[in-house]
Fold each of these.
Amino acid sequence: MSDDAATTDESVAPEESNEAVPELHGCLVGSSLGQTVVFPSREQYVDLVKALADDGYLMCVDLAGVDYLEFMDRPLPASVDAQRFEVAVNLLDTVGCRRIRLRVQVPESDAVLPSLFDLHPGTEAMEREAFDMFGIEFSDHPDLTRILMPEDWVGHPLRKDYDVGRIPVQFKEANS
């Protein structure tokens, strides 16, 4: 599928349009700033990534967690149920010079998503970061432990409801 094939703006609800809702491998497709965006459910996520690999998207260039605590009314296709957390994945087809983004909604009450490690081993650290900073777990991950914060750290610092703390900076040779 070319980037031009998905022209529906993700902010437009499908019911408001006379056009058929575009899909890719059974998942809703939108567009954002000229980039194809696919909205798989958690159940479709791994199968979609496998299918996209067969389509030439062999490189995962980014995987990141997002907390939309205060932006639950963000633009999404009408049939996509907005959740507090989202995992955004950017895949690249280096031969066809194409890029595609996946946006998976992850509910706060069950913040678990399957790991992509078996398909894209390079996601190991990115999934650990999303776990460490947001508390999103990745099932079947080989080593889902903290990567940025100390192991005994309580909480997930990039959550919007995480208390802002303060660790005093100590300068070398400063007068105390």
Amino acid sequence: MSARRELPESSFLAAAAGRQPARVPVWFMRQAGRSLPEYRALRAQHSMLAACFDPELVCEITLQPVRRHGVDAAILFSDIVVPLRGAGVDLDIVPDVGPVIADPVRTAADIAALRPLDPERVTAVAEAVSLLVGALGDVPLIGFAGAPFTLASYLVEGGPSRTHARTKAMMLAEPGSWHALMTRLTDLTIAFLTVQLDHGVDAIQLFDSWAGTLSVADYRSFVLPHSARVFATLAGAGVPMTHFGVQTAELLGAMAEAIRPAPAAVVGVDWRTRLTDAAARVGAGIALQGNLDPAVLLAGWPVTERAARAVVADGRAAVAAGASGHVFNLGHGVLPESDPGVLTELVSLVHSL
């Protein structure tokens, strides 16, 4: 295991841990990606999966938004299906579609056939993290993984889905099979995040992208125990941990329960919920991350500036209401059409506030 870096001046780590940051920290989900011309130039020569398994490419793409925007944290360039590939699942990331699974998991036999993570298959990720720790200086590196429910949805549906109907059908009709699948995917998620932690990431984020399709009752019964085990198992690493999903307004309290074992807990909030409302649902002692609507960036700088100031003010009010800190971010990922210049100006604005 790599020795943990000491980054006492990091505004991101301070806010996540409930300390007073020198300034409001800001980074963006999908900051390393399709909005950047330098990223598109690299991707023109490499498929998404190939890029995710090339340590030098991962390092370069992760560094691009740090150089360009001056954000307060880097997030590892990867994809949530990388650990599935590391467990031998036959899949591809199809342009304009997303992850596609060759043989969806639909039966108890399919679940039993799933293998654990093979560390040898993700050595590229480990090497990339080591490279980044050396290259980032005093900028913290966030590692990440897809949450067990979101991974299960891809496996069961065979790819992206609007309704997640097959996933919910298995969950409700075959709870034994469902929990067996979630147990295996929780083990996989823990193993993949452990690889990143062992090589020096300074924080982690768990993306439960599709959890918002569930009711609170179903989330509590079928998802929360497994996500909670991820955070509880990794709490000993001593790093900040963030829990994020889309359209999860009604789930924020339950998601906060899952992450409370973390030594420094952050709940990500999408743009549909005010941070002050999120603070009430999450409860005291947990930091919030978010939550500018990514579409605002397409509306021009005056609109972006007004909206960003409102988010910062809402974040301050959320902290006054009991949240332990606020990390400025978007309420989901940067849209490909976004002007990189607006993102750079947004970082400067947030820092000035």
Amino acid sequence: MPFTIQWVDNCLGAEEVVGLQTPVGQLVLTIRQDVIIKTDWEASDCLGTPGKHELNQYWQNTDNCINIKLLKQGSLYRNQVWTALCQIPFGETMTYSVLANKLGSSARAVGNACRDNPYALIIPCHRVVSVSGMGGYCGQTEGGLMDIKYKLLEFEASHKK
């Protein structure tokens, strides 16, 4: 996995919004101090000039391990799902039901935790698919976010070692 996550229980200070242009679309990072508190895919390029951030390294060299700090959020169960998502190898996918079986849970509960993931790209919920297709991404099953899911999986498959 290209990210080493340090979970931070709380952080103070002003929020900074940074746009990061990626090969699959604009990723918007909300940061307090040096802690990422949220990521979102931008539907349009309305943020202007993208900011520079260590996540740029993700696209340059997929072997590099990127150290980042994330604000710990969500329930114990969601954190278990998000931790399991980070164990899915770069360039591979897993079905909701297989992941659910590993956690002793249900596919629907795993899907809900994926939908509530506050860290798109970093917590790789895009690597989870349905037994009958792509499933969803960031709460959507069609449209621009699904295009991003396809592009992320294509990027990872083409850069898999």
Amino acid sequence: MFDYTPNTSLANQLCHPETLHTAWRKVRANKGGPGSDGVTIQQFETNLTKHLRQLSREIAEERYYPLPVQKFTMKKSNGGTRELSVLALKDRIVQRAVCDLISPIYEAKFLDCSFAYRPNRGVPHAIAQVAAIRAEGYTWAVHADIENFFDRMDTHLLMRFLRASLKEPLIIRLIQMWLDMGGILQPPKLPTWSTHIENTVHHLGEGVEQVINQILHRTPNYGHDNEYQNTGIEDEWAVDEPEIAAHAAPLAHTGKEMLTNLGRDGLLLLLANAKRLWKPLATKQLLLIAPLVVAALAAPTVGSIVKERMNRPRKIGVIQGSPLSPLLANIYLHPFDKAMNRAGIRMVRYADDLLLFCRSEGRARHALQHAQKQLATLKLELNPKKTHIADFNTGIEFLGHIFDADGCYQPIPESRAKNLQNQLQRTVKHGAVQVKRAGQHATQNSRNIVTQLSERFKKLGTQKANTDV
């Protein structure tokens, strides 16, 4: 396991071939089909070393882009449907590697009330914890379920939590791209000179953005949501609820501010381009056309900056089924866990399914209200159809187990119960048939015995009569 320290670069570790190879073995063990590029596990493995080296170079040179997600719909047992997403194989490998690198950082911070998607923790451990807390005298519980949790996670808040706890620009940039994966397409294959110009403009744009951020006393922007950044957030991304609510809505820009930003960014971009391109263009023949070339290169970037600032999308939701989504889910709900712990409310949470333990029904109502308030700060809410207050003695179902006055047991699923019923009916019917046959056989044997005895008695009677004569 990679040992993370503040002075250790996760970016260097991520680009190491052994890190990607370890991630590849885990992805291969999970199997899975091809993504939008159609590359299967068998095809990738034919040139494994080559593909992993190429992937390592793309990450190191910041040329890695995730491919579009392959989506399809699956029918659920209750008659509904569920949308599943399949990432391209190379994206699953990189996500698995990033998850392995950053998991130890957050595992050291997660609370004991969380049991899902964590090493050496699972349903049996959560059930054992529920039984232990109940034995302490907590006879009432709030069984709650977060409604559409993965689909309603606010990616801006999530990125804010990550930036407060992870000082790794490359990792942050990768996670930001994955969260925006739906809108990212594979870069087109351009000629060499076009690629050079594109990369030049891209780097110039980043340089100008850094200058702008320094002028405005802002931190560097690795996404399109720096209005959510807050330098006052301490490690463990613990923030007060009113502070989150204050940053929930994007800041509005007036027309005057937009024009000011446009003029400033355009000027700084022209200066940055001029500084970088002046040397190759500083000849007598190109001296007059250099400013025009610089302006031509600057115009698309200026336009993209303005367009990005005016049309900042607010994407919500995290793709389910990706290697990184379980860890992101626990990171997102960590502030909720801490808030409930600070309030002195005992809790067992398994992903979006949770139990709040109380000693009375009245305290259970207060615990439910507090949970709703804390989740609202994370743009989440409880599912009213799956949230209720109950007494352990009357029965509470949690993670496929039932707690009642008799203790804890796991009910037989309906499908399995039906199979057992059918087997029992077949067994009883078969037994009845066997008994009937046995009875018929016994009756026939009895008749045979009676017939034989009758014949013997007749013979004896005949013999006796002959003797008397």
